[in-house]
Amino acid sequence: MNIFTSLIGIRIVFILGIVNALLFVFLLITCRCLPMSSIGKKWLQNATYKRFYGYHCYLWWVFGASVIVHVIFAIGAFGIPF
Questions:
Q1: Distance CA 34, CA 31 (A)
Q2: Of 47, 30, 26, nearest to 39 (Cα)?
């Protein structure tokens, strides 16, 4: 049984797609350019956002690993589309 073409492999591709989308939004929210905007100045007054803002660099590592695994499983499940 090939894990890439099994139901588990397809589910991994789908779940990692959602994880990638959420991480992308989190990375945009914690972008270093945001504090310069009017929205970011208000958010930086919130202690919870300040803690979350500190994880920006770690989010990139999780996002990168998630994208790599997503691409491997997607190519394994669906092949190269050309």
A1: 6
A2: 30
The H or E element spanning position 79 is none
- The conformation of residue 37, written as its DSSP 8-state character, comes to S
Backbone dihedral region for residue 37 (phi beyond 0: left; psi -120 to 50: alpha; all else: beta): beta
Which pLDDT tens digits describe the chain residue by residue (82 residues)? Answer: 587 778 888 899 999 999 999 999 999 888 877 767 777 778 888 888 888 888 989 999 999 999 999 999 999 888 887 8
Token pair belonging to 40: 């970011």
How many whole angstroms separate alpha carbon 70 and alpha carbon 33? Answer: 28
